[in-house]
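A.,

Following up on our hallway conversation. Structure tokens first:
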């Protein structure tokens, strides 16, 4: 072989090597482009997505282990039951996965998705809307509030295809960017800076209405026909029993339609059929006060929630095989840290109240020491509702003007003065003056 032949062969080899190197560079550039585009897409998705679902439930889906009790149902449940209060009083770990206007089919699929991440010992189910003969209720945005935070999986895909009918709806609920990418004009600071609220799914209302005139039918009056709600309630119970999970059916106190009441009463028959407990709380004597414990016709306010949470916490502690983790260093350390965040959040809501009745609702709480100065004795014209709200205040100690001035650091120039102390630390967490029912 001649030198020139060798040179030609070497030149061909070099050219091929260069071409291969160039091809590798192009592939690397393409991969980098896809990675950067993917990261950019995810960031846009995160920013444009409505945050309601993530704020309420992402803590569960991101770290789902360690919850012995799951609460399922509608807004009646998440306004009615506070897992952090149950933790503090009973050491039970729980999460409230109830969602706004969640029909029983949606609750069933939420449970199915949750069981892929966590196997609780007890599932507590709110039976409101069991009378409904359809699979979903409410606006699209409300349904998104309950479903967006659930990670995409084969089970979620089955849920979406069961609850919705069209391919467009399937896209919307499996890939939320499909509808949220146009939200640019709606974006606010909360879309860029948000964090899950440490309430374990609970929410709070501080409005107050008088439901004393609520019509309550007899407990044995039931809805006789079968419904979609009853069908899926059975599916929930059967799924739990198959997994060895204890089921507790509940009816949260409300003042809803006769049909809704009949439906919830009928859940008692299903409870008997499957040999599971049914806590029909609207018929529990003096459990809630219709004059002060409701925020509207259907939902409990903060005071009512405290009473229902106490009731359920005691029931779960006494009737279910649940561990009190308050003596466990590993579990208690994390939950106590979460509880401090939860308490700070509740205190911030308390401080925002400007109306005397709404402020008083928050004081039905054993975690406060409440010192109250009242300038004048309540006269006969004071409403029964306001009187009852004052009676409802927990850990209350009446003080005179001199003591109030000393604690406030100024003369209490108002009709009412409140000094709240943290029960555990003794720290003063709020001072408030009210005149003519308004915060000063």
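Then the amino acids I'd put at each of the 440 positions:
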């Amino acid at each position: 072989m001649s030198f020139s032949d060798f040179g030609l062969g070497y030149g061909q080899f070099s050219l091929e090597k260069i071409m291969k190197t160039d091809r590798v560079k192009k592939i690397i550039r393409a991969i980098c482009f896809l990675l950067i585009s993917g990261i950019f897409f995810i960031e846009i998705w995160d920013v444009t997505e409505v945050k309601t679902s993530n704020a309420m439930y992402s803590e569960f889906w991101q770290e789902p282990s360690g919850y012995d009790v799951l609460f399922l149902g509608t807004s009646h449940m998440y306004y009615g039951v506070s897992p952090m209060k149950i933790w503090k009083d009973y050491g039970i770990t729980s999460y409230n996965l109830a969602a706004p206007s969640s029909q029983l089919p949606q609750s069933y699929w939420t449970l199915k998705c949750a069981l892929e991440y966590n196997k609780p010992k007890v599932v507590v189910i709110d039976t409101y809307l069991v009378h409904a003969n359809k699979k979903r209720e409410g606006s699209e945005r409300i349904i998104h509030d309950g479903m967006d935070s659930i990670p995409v999986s084969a089970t979620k895909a089955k849920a979406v295809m069961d609850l919705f009918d069209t391919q467009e709806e399937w896209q919307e609920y499996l890939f939320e960017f499909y509808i949220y990418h146009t939200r640019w004009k709606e974006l606010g600071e909360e879309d860029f800076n948000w964090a899950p609220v440490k309430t374990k799914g609970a929410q709070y209302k501080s409005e107050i209405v008088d439901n004393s005139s609520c019509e309550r039918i007899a407990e044995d009056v039931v809805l006789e026909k079968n419904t979609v709600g009853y069908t899926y309630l059975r599916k929930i119970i059967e799924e739990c029993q198959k997994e060895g999970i204890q089921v507790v059916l509940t009816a949260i106190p409300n003042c809803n339609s006769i049909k809704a009441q009949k439906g919830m009463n009928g859940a008692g028959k299903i409870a008997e059929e499957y040999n599971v407990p049914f806590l029909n709380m609207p018929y529990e004597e003096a459990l809630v006060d219709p004059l002060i414990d409701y925020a509207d016709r259907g939902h409990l306010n903060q005071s009512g929630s405290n009473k229902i949470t106490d009731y359920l916490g005691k029931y779960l502690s006494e009737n279910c095989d649940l561990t009190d983790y308050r003596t466990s260093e590993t579990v208690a350390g994390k939950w106590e840290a979460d509880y401090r965040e939860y308490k700070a959040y509740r205190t911030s809501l308390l401080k925002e109240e400007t109306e005397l009745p709404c402020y008083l609702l928050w004081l039905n709480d054993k975690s406060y020491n409440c010192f109250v100065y009242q300038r004048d004795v309540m006269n006969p014209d004071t409403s029964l509702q306001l009187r009852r709200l004052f009676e409802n205040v927990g850990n209350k100690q009446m003080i005179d003007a001199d003591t109030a001035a000393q604690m406030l650091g100024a003369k209490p120039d108002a009709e009412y003065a409140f000094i709240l102390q943290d029960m555990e630390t003794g720290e003063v967490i709020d001072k408030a003056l009210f005149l003519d029912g308004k915060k000063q």
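The beta strands are 69-72, 94-96, 122-126, 246-251, 278-280, 368-374, 396-399, 416-422, 428-435, 438-439. Curious whether your intuition agrees with the design.

B.
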